[in-house]
Input
Amino acid sequence: MAIENFIAGINPRTAFFVIFLGALSAFLWRDRNQIQRHYILFYRRTKRGLNLIDRIAARAPRFWKYYGAAAVVTGVISIAASFGLTAQMFFEMFRTQTVQSGPSLIAPGLSGDVSFQPGVSFVPVEYWLFAIGVLSVVHEFSHGIVARTEGFNLNSVGWAIFGIFPAAFVEPEGEQMLPGEEEEGGEDRELWHGGNWYSRLKVLCAGSFANYLTAAVFILFAMGVSAGATVPETTGYMGINFGLNEEGELGYVAQEGYPAYESGMRNGTLEAINGQNITSVEDLRNFSEGLEANRTVTLETSEGGFQFKTTENTVSRLKEGLEPYASGLNWFTTGLFTVGILNLLIGLFNMLPIKPLDGGWALEALIENYLGEERTHWVNKLSLAMWALLLATLVVTIGGLVI
Output
């Protein structure tokens, strides 16, 4: 009994996270001879996946040329937008002398809530892992495919883990991507071997462009699932079946032989119950949690107002019908929205005009082409200044201090 109570008291999300950390540790140990380490950064290069990238790039080269050009347009806009939003954030922090807005570290959480806030934002661990996996794969494959289309050679693909944060990478020939390589190489190397500035710009902007497209797909899919979902029949609830109509509103149909139908209800849209606005399945489920037998319930609908008295059967069947459906649907759609939002936010962050982010290298390519190579040192100075501000405000925000 004690063991059963202990198991019943374990948070499934906590158990999942512990299992994930154990599996990650076992994986790193098993593959330890192939893994390189730099402090808390672990990474491994491999040739697997390069043939797949080549095949995808060769299948539709013209498409990927246009894709790269679209990525450049989006990337330049993103550089300006991300810099502007960051500057506005700093300005508001200094103007208000508070940390109500600021940078945020997105970390795996053990609760079911998704909370985006300054300092540390916690995302349910299962959403976090799936989102990081999706955004890393589409980001790096997009880099790799456009690189091959533009004629760059790829040395390797691989994965990396910074602490517990997983990532993926595609390594063009000649790039000093990972720390510690300066000593191993023995000499300075150019950013990449071959290609002009515009080709490099396409490759640099392609990663975040893929994240934006992925964000759109997941968010639209989530909206479609929410709009197309219907509530299971709950005829015990005074003979009323609820479901989302084509407009996404919570509609109903009253069944013959039940009090609702006898009182004049037929079909329409539910607006409120007992003065509480009801606009979604989740609202109806939340209302049912406090519902008791022998209570008068007033429904406000598009057909008018109707009153009924609940019974034990009414309460139990409504809760049984809505609880598993609403919980499962909410978990699924929230996960889709979360993956989409994280792709958008991290894609935009990656286009900040600071090195070693893609936006910093892209800005350097633009400056080198239009203003000359001697002006590119300003990107390094801007990068140092912005990283210092970001890290300082992150520390202050996490500490909950006033500037």
User: Anything to note?
Assistant: Confidence is low (pLDDT under 50) at residues 4-8, 182-190, 231-236, 315-325. The longest strand covers residues 154-162.
